[in-house]
Amino acid sequence: MVNIIPYSLREYVSLFEITPDDNARKTLDRSLKYHHMDIKECEKEDFYLLAKLLLEKLDSSVDINGWFLGTDLPVVPDFDVLICLKDNIVNIDLKHEDGEKKFKKIKNKFDKQKNIINGIGKNIINIVFCADTKTLYKYDTDFKKIDFNELIRIIQEDDICLSNALEMIDSKNYLISPLKDIDRFKRGEYWLSDQQYEIRNQLFNPGLYGIEGGPGTGKTLIIYDYIRKYDKDKKILLVFGGKIRDEQISLQNIFKNAKLVSAKYVANNPSILNEYDAILIDESQRLHKNTRSEIISWIPKKLFKQSNCIFL
Question: Model pTM?
Answer without folding.
Answer: 0.68
